Amino acid sequence: MNRLPALRRAAVREWGPLFTAVRQRLAARGVRALALTLTAVALTAVIQVTQNQAWGYGPVRNLGAVRAEDPLPLALLRTPLSLFVPALDLPVWGALAQILLVFGVAEVCLGRWRTLAVAYGATLAGTLYARVGVALGPGTFPGLPASDAQVVDTGPSAAVVGLAVYVCHQRRAWFTGALVVLAMVVEVLVKDNLAGREHLAAIAAVLVVCGVREWLGRRRGARNPGTAVRTCGPAEGGPGPGRRR
């Protein structure tokens, strides 16, 4: 039996709405639809070059390096920039590719401000989890060893994972979203470290937000039966494909 038609239909159901939204948005606004994404890629590249210079390593650490042992106000101030500070022990092209792909799709679907909010919220969830995990200690599953308090926590991975799950929920791409979650669970099972745990914390935070939005949408739908709940329309910041400038 030829399963290709069935697989094709499944792929269209899963990714068709997302692909259509991205294509229409890019056709309508061009590169302007990716202003945030391109800025984030450029900022990450500049920070990578800077932190690899003798004169730049210290300032980047002081402005964007977050540790669980840092005072909370200082960590909160550093967290926004830490999102764009690539990890020194990982290839920078991986971070740039993640930002370009996931931030790009999210910016087209959600708009730049919601994309920033979800990215920062996911990163912040991971940062706060690290503090709670160290406080709990290694005796429980959420707990972390005391040595993790000194681990420098930077990079876009938590934001990327959170955005991927959020967009999958908005576009009802359930299979893809489940794959993202499963991949992060497997990551922790294979290599249980701070980064993997923070990815799970980011996913948990985003799922809570998605659940609340779904509940509020259903309540609005119950009050106004004729009003459809919009899950992911044209991003803010410009006209959609069918609107005049």
UniProtKB/TrEMBL annotation:
Region described as Disordered: 222-245
Coiled coil (residue ranges): none
Compositional bias (Gly residues): 235-245
Signal peptide interval: none
Keywords: Membrane, Transmembrane, Transmembrane helix
Keyword Transmembrane helix listed: yes
Top-level taxon: Bacteria
Membrane-crossing segments per the record: 33-51, 90-110, 117-137, 149-168, 173-190, 196-216
Protein name (record): Rhomboid family intramembrane serine protease
Organism: Streptomyces parvus
